[in-house]
Amino acid sequence: MELFFYAVPSLMLAAFAFAAFRLVRRARRINRTWANGLTAEARCLRMYTTTSGGGGDTSVRTTLHHVYEFTTREGRTVRFAEEDGPATVLEGDFTTVRYLPEAPERATALPPAPGRLAAGTGCLLVFLGVAAAICVGFMFLAHSIFTMSDGLTP
User: Fold this and answer.
1) Over 90: is that where the pLDDT of 32 sits?
2) What global pTM score does this model have?
């Protein structure tokens, strides 16, 4: 029975750690692409939205997606999709993309904004840290209760 009070928060901690790892890795990749990437002119082939949530009395979240195509300096045609791009880019528009020569399929059409990226990443890391601290606190509280009860539970 006690194992449940340790296993579930431990799994949650692992998920929070993995999310933080992915978040930092994504931010570093985008920042590296902005700083060291090559630029190319891309065409927006498709623009669409997806929605999530909205069940019961929850709010609906709408995500804007763009599909871009560009040609690298080596002549390779690359197509990639990106979430949360600017709403001002419509199908058929041309825009500048940045890409790393070793990974052009991970290009970005987001304009360089390192401060905004750092702030957003920092806020999400703080959120994950608070959630992790709550899990650790819960595990500590459960351990204290089980220690004080000293086998009184059935």
Assistant:
1) yes
2) 0.79
